[in-house]
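Posting this for the archive.
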Amino acid sequence: MTIDIRTVTAGDRAGWCDLYEGYRTFYEIPSDPTAVRTAWDWVSAGEHGFIGLVAVDAGRIVGLANLRRFARPSTAGMGLYLDDLFTAPDARGSGVATALLERAGDIAAQEGANVVRWITAEDNATARRVYDKVASATPWVTYDMQPAAP
């Protein structure tokens, strides 16, 4: 397998959307074609500070990473947040995720960001084995708060 990591292009839509639907299925997020299309539109257009990366092998998209720029007031710097990382099931174990993470680190360095940050499910042991090789787990706990009703 020869993996090429690059930013998304308009021609990646079908392959990216298929993989993103696989990501949503993996995390047991109900199918929602509108959400997938909206995410594609944001990532492909660079809206909301997004950077979309794909891993390509022989013309086929086998992985994706969606990064987003964010300000870090505590360090007076910028960071990249990895919203989504997914590898096609038949390409797992071939270095796709590591290559995407390394490219994210390269982009962070080029942009002067001081961190690439992400979260994953605590029980996602397969991914965490990869993550533990390239990053350090933090002691922070994540919370989600629903906005007040209008």
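The domain at 4-134 is CATH 3.40.630.30 (Aminopeptidase). The chain has four helices and five strands.
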